[in-house]
Sequence to fold (538 residues):
Amino acid sequence: MHILSANSPYVDRFINGGEIMEKRFNTTGACFPEMHYMVDITERLAAIKKMIDRGDYFVINRGRQYGKTTTLKALEKYLADDYCVISLDFQNMDPEDFDTTSSFVMAFAQEILSALQGGDDIPSEPKAQLEAVANGKQIRMANLFRVIGEWCRLSPKPVILMIDEIDSASNTQTFLSFLSKLRAAYLERNERSTFRSVILSGVRDIRNLKLKIRDESEHQHNSPWNIAVDFNVNMSLTVDGIAGMLSDYESDHHTGMDINAVAQLIYDYTSGYPVLVSNICKLLNETIHEWNSDGVISAVNQILSMNMPLFDSLINKLEDYPEMKKSLYQVLVGGQKFSYNPDHEATKLLLLFGFVKIVDNGVVIANRIFETRLYNDMLTSEEMKSTPIAKAGTLDKPEFVKDGILDVELILTRFIAHFHEIYGDKPEKFIEEDGRKCFLIYLRPIINGIGNYYVEAQTRDNRRMDIVIDYLGKRYIIELKIWHGQKYNEDGEKQLSDYLDSYGLKTGYLLTFNFNENKGSGVKTVQFEDKTLIEATV
Fold:
């Protein structure tokens, strides 16, 4: 999402030109407050301004479509009264502009002049010098920075440099030289004038740049951008922020939605990832037209079936890093946890792309939508789709819905029968490692296309995993656990009962994988306090 000011020529064409467009949710390209429903990010801008006021240099590095450009465009307007803001986008420069120092210096000067658009933000003398650089009369990097220093010295306002899409140039020697000059100017800023603050924006954190400068075997590992401070401003959308956006929408459309409930559910599925929030709202507005829990769940289902660049990037990165894919597999299916290691390259990359986050120093999937997409990718691989248990789920599907109610007890009964038929003679190790995976493989085709599922992160470990199913407006909780004795089973009943309370449910389901030789399999009903628990044992 991008924010542009109300005096943008593009906005003028639609507002002042008489062609008033109905506001909508936008997921691609620039967004205008006059044209699109957007979350108020004033608090975020105020936090960033404090960093700028201190003279910080920093990088806004977040995943794709995470609101970076939105923030920079809004920040440019937010700072206008106090600062002279140079806002550039490296995507506007051609790839060959980064081939040599001279080509970069000329193109960079041209971009600055274009961004100023003939205004009086730059005094006449440094402007003339900058034009000379842009025309190729002074093509050394030192010339460029001398002009910038003179501009900053004469400017009535402190000068701020913001560059978006730095990934377009981050694998070039020219960019490394540019960063070196910025660093040198920063270190000497008590003696010589330079930018008050520099903000670079992109996916990669260039403080830890691995730069290829010659051939496949030779790399530069040390970025000169070690002067940058940590950027810890929250870029995720909050529940209150989403509710504010929905309130604006409700004022125009009067749907009767429960704004806070819908905002909370959207956040529950997205954890505030901006493009996912926007996609859900766009689908609700343009296609589904149900601003309630059913509508949100339907929107999530559609998103999970989309070929989004975000998902393509996620899957591709996992293929590039097999060790990380293995670790995530163990988290998703095996319930294992692994600690955050800041030196693990694959983990750092997944963090940068926004697909995982750190909670209590552990690596967890960033949001439910990403998690379900990862599950779906794992469970629908050619290997998984061809398994007998997956085929059994597909064949059994028509029997499990009666009058809009998902018959979870019958699902568990049929799963036990199929499991024993297919895997009954497998060694114990195979069953223990793959039991929960088998259930998910069996379950997915049953609910696919109508409902969705996710694993409650707070209950995931190597002994217990709670699956939450949303199906035709109703919610079902299935606890999967490994048998560790009667006492542990009783504790599990208590935990499930408490968990059902959080959802306002009176019926829950337990699927226990018991590897004792004298185990008894089957399904039974247990009354626990005021709850009905359907307990199935494999």
Q: What stands out?
A: The mean pLDDT is 83.
